[in-house]
Amino acid sequence: MVNGLFDDAPLMQQGPVNLSRRRFMLTSAGAATGAFVLGFGLPARQARAQAAKGPKYRGTQVPAFLEIRPDNTVRLQSPFIEGGQGTFTAMAQIVGEELDADPSTFLVENAPAGDEYAVMDSGMRITGGSMSVRNGYPAMRRLGALGREMLLQAGAQHLGVPVSELTTQPGQVVHAASGRTVNYGDLAHVAMDLPVPDPASVKLRDPSQFRWIGKSVKRLDIYGKSTGKVDYAIDVRVDGMLHAAVQHAPRLGMTVGSIRNEEQVRQMKGVHSVHRLPGAAAVVAERWWHARRGVEALLVNWVEAEPGAASDIRVMPADFSTEEFRKHLATVSGKEENAETRGDVTRGLKNAHTVVEATYFSQYVNHGQLEPPSALARYNPDGTLDIWLPNQAPDMFRADMARRTGMDAEKITIHSPLLGGFFGRHFLYDHGSPYPQAIALAKATGRPIKLIWTREEEFLRDALRPMAAVRFRAGLDATGRPVALDVVSATEGATEGLGTKRGKDLDPTALEGLTNKAYDIPDRRIAQLFVRNPATLGYWRSVGNSMNDFLYETFLDELADKGHQDPYELRLHLLRDNRRLTTLLKAVADLSGGWKRGPFTAADGSRRARGIGMASPFGSEAAAIAEVSIENGRVRVHEVWEAIDPGKVVNPAIVEGQVNGAIALGLSQVLLEETVYENGMPRARNYDGYPILALNQMPRVHVKIVESGEKMGGVGEPPLPAIPPAVANAVSTLTGRRIRSMPLSRHDFAS
Amino acid sequence: MELNINGIQHHVDVEPDTPLLWALRDDLAMTGTKYGCGLAQCGACTVLVDGQAVRSCVTPVEKVAGASITTIEAIEQDDLGKRVVAAWVKHQVPQCGYCQSGQVMAATSLLRQVPHPTDADIDAAMVNLCRCGTYNAIRAAIHDLASGSTDGGA
């Protein structure tokens, strides 16, 4: 079934095909007699759907979301993009549950740009912040229920019986009295022409009756992804297209001066043309390999940005060094802006029996998604623009394209294929995506252009997870437990790091994971000391929590040691009035066979220890224990146990996969990853200089999902932040050396 | 240049030093084989040349003229390849999926040479990178194949 679905998808076709979504939709509508294709180029239906749109309910324009084909397959336009996190399958489960259609009969695609798909509470549409399922859940259930109502109405007309006598079973309307059934696919052409019922009127299924929500339904994309049949943006082809490659300025802000060998490169085999772009030189060719060879041969004289020139660019200084910046963050003084205060930290520290002070560090990291960025831009004869690119917010990207081109947004069609890796890479980062270059080259050449960034050019323009130096001061009471905590983080948040101007309010992503910790420490203050970063910043899976929970939780273990407390018992004490987290912490300890800190000797003779980390990211709760040893001076992680409480879950198997993936990325960060700049340039431009976790470094993973029934939280990001501190705390216990920074590969544990 | 790919003879009009990856992707429109790094670091471009896993991003076409090349597009025409795909489905291995063409090719090559690989064999052979962290599912799928419990019909 699944492979059959993928065979039909427009982006899965082999060979050079014209992939205009609009044209495809109309063609398929014409080709498949009786199929009902909705929402595109059908203004009458859109107008009718508009009537159902109210401020209270989002995502009610059923025909814009659902196409039910004569073969009973359900084509769903998902407001959220699939990048590996399982969202397409989850959307099929949620909609299918209320529509009464088996999720395995769904074909899910990323919806085009458009207000009708802005289903989030915020009125926006972004796939990120681990929001898709928890934020889309009410709207997508309602959507399925509205669709079912419309099918029931059409069934009543078709069978000539009152709607009250009808019910449904998966994929069918049923008239029990006469024993008659009608497939949804035979009713859809009537059903989707009916007015959308009042969203307030629909009755949702009782959760105790769920067949698919909460079950480990198989993912819809597995077979296609196991056989190379799915297409990512980098795989899309259109008729007449040329390929392009770029050479970026070595530092952001520099511009092309002269090109010393432009004429020779233009004469190279396969080269179509050579172009100057803002901050880059480009070569266009009939094949990408020719474009790449050409662009690498270009000898460009790069011109420095004019000092002090007004600019919306973060000009990278020629002397920028992450090592120096780290020292700067550790020592800089300035305004400390409080993000969270409780009690009186000054008094708490003054009255403390012991005061502990330490500075902890986080490093820059790259996204390292396996699919290099690309964009395919095509101007059409009618003046419209089609563009294919990986992105996690089609409407925001389209608005940016309209701004850059001066075009009406309605004339830009944005296509959003599956993402070959997510991790926060495909948000709107100035200079972080090839689409402005692809658009410029398509305009200059009059041909469709597919631009692929080499891995090396990607490492030069990726947006980085921020660095921080956090100065902790804590007061312990006479029993050795923390009673006061003062935290000042010298950093810049990812959100405020997107622009060149700082917002009026504190950026919550700067300190999340230092703030909102559940531990009962009566006197505390969490503050930011804002330091502008020369590098372009961005969101990295679990954002601020990706570093801040490491910083906090490792310092908490330092406090436990200073106060002669067991780190597990201390956490239980500090969470004694928090039933949810006490349950979670005990659950992970139980999962690991009972808390056993070590060091101890394992069955293979190696000396090992275990460490704990906890985090409360993106509406969920997580607790992890890691077991480590030292092999040839390097840290080896043998086991990770993680308990996660996202309130309730839609697909336990996908949650377990996400926990595995988040553990891998968390381990990669704490063990290996660090983006190092020297002389304004990243030292690594490919995976050879920027190692990421490999299979032989992956520990055994044990997952416990705790469904507390609390408000639904996120899943994709929340399992990550507890991992780095769990590992670092285990290493501190094992080696007796306090770990205050990542990655551990910086340390040699041989001695 | 004549290339035997998936049992079919193809003529490609490229220079002899063109990487096989780009002949596949741009000349033959076979985009199941992925570009990841261009340096034989990540394994997303893995194909089989005479049954052996090869990084097509650094393999000039002249080196494989006359050899038998298998890409992900034809992996299910091979009995072992078909079983590997079935195990990938059974264990729900892929997440984003971008590296998985290469992972499936690497696993097929490993199992062809070592039908019952140990963990150490898997560690040594499966060096393809996966940023989504599907490594444990990959290991489980390979062990499952080695134990013979997964047939082609899953």
From TrEMBL, chain B:
GO terms for molecular function: 2 iron, 2 sulfur cluster binding; metal ion binding; oxidoreductase activity. InterPro entries: 2Fe-2S-bd, 2Fe-2S-bd_dom_sf, 2Fe-2S_ferredoxin-like_sf, 2Fe-2S_ferredoxin-type, 2Fe2S_fd_BS, Beta-grasp_dom_sf, Diverse_Oxidoreductases. Residues 1-75 form the 2Fe-2S ferredoxin-type domain. CDD domains: fer2. Pfam families: Fer2, Fer2_2. It comes from the Bacteria. Keywords: 2Fe-2S, Iron, Iron-sulfur, Metal-binding, Oxidoreductase. This is (2Fe-2S)-binding protein. It comes from Acetobacter tropicalis.
